[in-house]
Amino acid sequence: MPRTLTAAMVALVTGMNATAGDRTYDPFLHYDRAMNVLLVWGGTSMAAGVPMVLNDDPWVKRIGTQNILWGGINAGIGVAAKALNRRNRVSMGRNDRINSFRRSMVINGLLDAGYIGTGIALAVLAKNERLKATGVGFIIQGSFLLGFDWANYGLTFR
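The chain above was modelled as a monomer; its predicted structure follows.
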């Protein structure tokens, strides 16, 4: 069952039934498709945030604000990373792309853990309800990003 789940994740993110150990695995395509997922997450976060900021509940409004801000940042990162990946396809070898991808996923995963930790601290320790809600927004976004980065890191080893 775990192998089937992994194969489904590989197919979803990379669009192919290949792994990093397989010579048909294209790390540039994997990276590009991963950034597509990040773009969709960013757009979905922003779209979900708009009606939330129009809500009268201050908690919902604050979480919606976080969705819009994080969504914009994630979409911007996705666009820039796709452009950089196109340039790197010409100047970077396959193994260098795999190693660079892995390194960026590790660094991003550490940052994601920091976002989640900050969110937990705000949600639990803040005296201000707006800050508590902001913390929940951090937890939501950081949790998705952590799962995204770990999954993509793991997919480069299969």
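Helices lie at 2-14, 27-53, 58-91, 94-125, 129-155.
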